[in-house]
Amino acid sequence: MINRRKPVRIGDVVFNTFNFVFMATLMIITLYPFLNTLAISFNNGVDTLRGGIYLWPREFSLQNYKAIFIGGNVFHAFLVSVERTVLTTVLNLFLTTMLSYTLSRKEYVFRKPITIIVVLTMYFNAGIIPNYFLIKNLHLLNSFWVYVLPAMIAAFNMIVIRTFILGIPESFVESARIDGAGDFRIFMQVIFPLCKPVLATIALFVAVGSWNTWFDTFLYCSSKQNLSTLQYELMKLLSSTQNFNANPALAAGVGANAHSAENMVTSLSIRASITIVAAVPIIIVYPFLQRYFVVGLNVGGVKE
């Protein structure tokens, strides 16, 4: 039996080679900043000042992470941040999607004025001081709910979800109404499941924003240590290291060897460690949401 090979074209070889080199270069450019930060976070703080650290720590050390987690409120703040992020994301998705569905219904007579009012909030803001007095008058100062309640509805998210809902065939709703379903049942059993792709995207945006913010803790809950969030604690730690500009190395050890070179951290090493600590939870969650970004779930439904 004669084995006939497909002739190799020079153009295909050139294209595949260029494509491989381009994608490999793009991957290196994308991953290098994170890998470099990871290497610095595991490197000795004093040795980091010499520079020249790229993808692997020159003098491996866990002192940077010890300086973050030992003797502080970091673990409790981490739990507060997780609780805040989960509640904010769940409530924002559910309530914003419910509002989006309501404003997408053509039979709702007030949908246009309410949509205009919601959109105007994206362009006009009273500022920090009026917002502070509003939070104070609502008795939300030094309360956990100051993290959750103001973030339950987002105008931009509403527009995105409403646009997605308008793209869902009306036949789904009509079929449910024929079966005797009401608006809430249609929303929960028809619209909400079909919105999974856009909800996954919005969930990532809301979760990242809620996880990374620290300014609201500074404004509304700075006097309550038990309400401090992870980002606020890390911000305070970073600020404390930056105050040692005259002496770039900050002692972070415990005991008689506190000022030895092995137990010293610097603002650069602490900043790298804080970046890794703050980014790891989002990196863990992201793969579970990625598959919903593009894939739609209304394939195979009622055809127009």
Automatic annotation (TrEMBL):
Residues 78-289 form the ABC transmembrane type-1 domain. Keywords: Cell membrane, Membrane, Transmembrane, Transmembrane helix, Transport. The keyword Calcium does not apply. InterPro entries: MetI-like, MetI-like_sf. The chain crosses the membrane at residues 12-35, 115-133, 145-165, 186-208, 268-289. Its main location: membrane. Pfam families: BPD_transp_1. It is a multi-pass membrane protein. It is found in: Cell membrane. CDD domains: TM_PBP2. One of its GO terms (biological process) is transmembrane transport. GO terms for cellular component: plasma membrane. The keyword Ion transport does not apply. PANTHER family: ABC TRANSPORTER PERMEASE PROTEIN MG189-RELATED-RELATED, POLYGALACTURONAN_RHAMNOGALACTURONAN TRANSPORT SYSTEM PERMEASE PROTEIN YTCP. Belongs to the binding-protein-dependent transport system permease family. This is Binding-protein-dependent transport systems inner membrane component.
